[in-house]
Design a protein that fits this description.
DNA Methylphosphotriester Repair Domain; Arc Repressor Mutant, subunit A; TATA-Binding Protein; five-stranded antiparallel sheet; 19 helices
């Protein structure tokens, strides 16, 4: 059944399947995205792979025309083996981590990780890591004016020599052969992040604009920009929606290029670019939402991290969105670092060191904020579920932070007042929308 779907998507070049699978052509030893504009090969000459790295492990080279390195990610099989998914995510985001680092983070042995990868992907963790680094370096070579040494470090290679050796071995080309056209060197790094349609930019834009923190975020008609801190490195990015095109154009200011892959992954999460939204919407309709009430292409608009999401949740308790954002903006402009005309969201320590007298909120709420920041500082790798220990933080705040700060897809805010009203109005069985109840939440909010 799946093969027949892939066949139809390949023939029609359906953009909704971009990144869901890849097509390898036996006669040319090249693999492509379903949207590749090249002449269609005969079905007998192709085979299908769910991941680009799997095609590379079989000796196929990435197409220079449709560029599989730029395809959106796909996690359709995520529920099959969450440990594999977590390992893949760590290997993609942290190019500086070794396989041993990954196993330590996951709390498993090297041997068990190899068994999982070979079972679910048909390749070793080391192969996946190298292939992923090659794909990332290929994207940078195509889209940026970085010199080869910088590309190497951004991709996780110790030197340009190691990059060139592995690149030639796997793709059959040198990095300079891939970089055929000269790209003008801009002041800031520019990259594209692709997504599968439908993508409701106008919904995300309106949602984020209403909740934008003054000085940190700027939301315009087709552009969202903000400052950020990642692994202790500060910078900013602007993501511009391209009407009629299935990608966001990024402009990035980043001081440590080694953090680029982690930055891009978090931007993808904030805009929920990797969601297979059509499959999600089908599930929501099964749960009881009338088909004519579904708003096409709604994603999960994320918050930069769980710390920011937690403070948004705490300050937003029992007041309007507008009131909460006013408090967040005041907090940021009082305690956040200012560089030129931009502010950076305050650190936990900056809040701990303040008496918060400028915030016109109850003392109990101020104490909750301080306790939250203390806990965050002392437990940097904790789960938001642990916040229940903090007086003043309840299940709703934790669930909200997980939904927007971690972009967990199956959060159900059943105690939310708007959700309760919508459930009274429509006959909806939320269990039938699992594992996409976060999307059900946003659809019901939008239907109010």
């Amino acid at each position: 059944m799946q093969t027949s779907i892939y066949q139809q998507a390949r023939i029609t070049r359906d953009p909704r399947f971009d990144g869901v699978f890849f097509i390898a052509v036996k006669t040319t030893h090249i693999f492509c995205r379903p949207i590749c504009p090249a002449n269609l090969p005969h079905e007998k000459n192709v085979e299908y792979f769910q991941h680009a790295q799997q095609a590379m492990s079989q000796g196929y080279r990435p197409c220079l025309r449709c560029r599989p390195d730029s395809a959106p990610q796909s996690y359709a099989w995520k529920g099959v083996e969450t440990t594999v998914h977590r390992a893949m995510k760590l290997l993609r985001e942290h190019h500086d981590l070794t396989i041993n680092d990954i196993t330590l983070k996951l709390g498993i042995s090297d041997r068990y990780l190899r068994q999982l990868f070979e079972k679910h992907l048909g390749l070793t963790p080391k192969q996946y890591q190298i292939f992923n680094r090659i794909l990332f370096s290929k994207k940078l070579l195509h889209e940026t004016a970085m010199d080869i040494e910088t590309v190497a470090h951004a991709s996780g290679f110790a030197s340009s020599r190691r990059l060139q050796h592995n690149f030639k071995k796997i793709t059959g080309l040198s990095p300079l052969q891939v970089r055929k056209k000269k790209i003008n060197q801009n002041q800031y790094l520019s990259l594209k992040l692709h997504f599968r349609p439908p993508f409701n930019w106008h919904y995300i834009q309106a949602f984020l604009q209403k909740r934008a923190i003054s000085g940190v975020e700027i939301v315009e008609t087709n552009c969202y920009s903000r400052t950020f801190s990642i692994e202790g490195c500060k910078g900013w990015f602007a993501a511009t929606y391209q009407p009629g095109k299935n990608y966001l154009l990024l402009e990035i200011n980043l001081t440590k290029i080694e953090h680029l892959s982690l930055l891009l992954s978090n931007i993808e999460r904030v805009f929920d670019l990797n969601a297979d939204i059509l499959q999600i919407q089908k599930q929501l309709i099964k749960s009881g939402i009338p088909k004519n009430r579904i708003t096409d292409g709604i994603r999960l608009p994320g918050v930069w991290d769980t710390f920011e999401a937690g403070l948004r949740g705490i300050l937003g308790q029992q007041i309007s969105v507008k009131g909460a954002i006013s408090l967040l903006s005041l907090l940021t402009q009082t305690l956040g670092e200012k560089v030129a005309d931009k502010y950076y969201f305050p650190t936990p320590q900056a809040i701990i060191d303040s008496n918060l007298e400028f915030l016109k909120i109850p003392m109990s709420r101020k104490q909750t904020i301080r306790d939250f920041c203390e806990y965050y500082s002392c437990h940097p790798n904790h789960s938001p579920d642990e916040w229940i220990k903090i007086k003043g933080i309840g299940p709703w705040t934790i669930a909200y932070a997980k939904m927007r700060g971690l972009s967990e897809p199956n959060i159900w805010l059943q105690t939310d007042l708007i959700i309760k009203k919508q459930l009274d109005k429509y006959k909806i069985d939320s269990a039938l929308s699992s594992p996409w109840r976060s999307y059900l939440t946003f659809q019901l909010w939008n239907m109010a």
